[in-house]
Amino acid sequence: MSWRTIYCPHNYLTFMILFLILVLILGLIFIGVAGLAFRQIGFSPHVTMLILLATLAGSYVNIPLFRLRTIMPIIKEEYISFFGLEFRIPQLDYDEFTTLVAINVGGALIPTILSIFLL
Question: What is the pLDDT of residue 103?
């Protein structure tokens, strides 16, 4: 007797194929809707495809602007042994962390340039 309460009649390959089909259909719908919107603004279909491809390719590129350095308290643990028992002693220490602030080319720079062009 199996203790599984949920029976899955399909294997993972079927789910992966259905997921890829869903992504493909949603991508085509997005391209159609975005293409229609860009055509109503006044762009040709070639320029629309170029903008969409530049946005997609630019989404992998981040341009670093600056770094923020912060000093935060960290609790570090030290263990000592006393009469065969091990005790944990917390100690307060400070460590420096950095955060990189960057701008995404496909998600921020290209839409901003496009908006400025339309103004």
Answer: 93
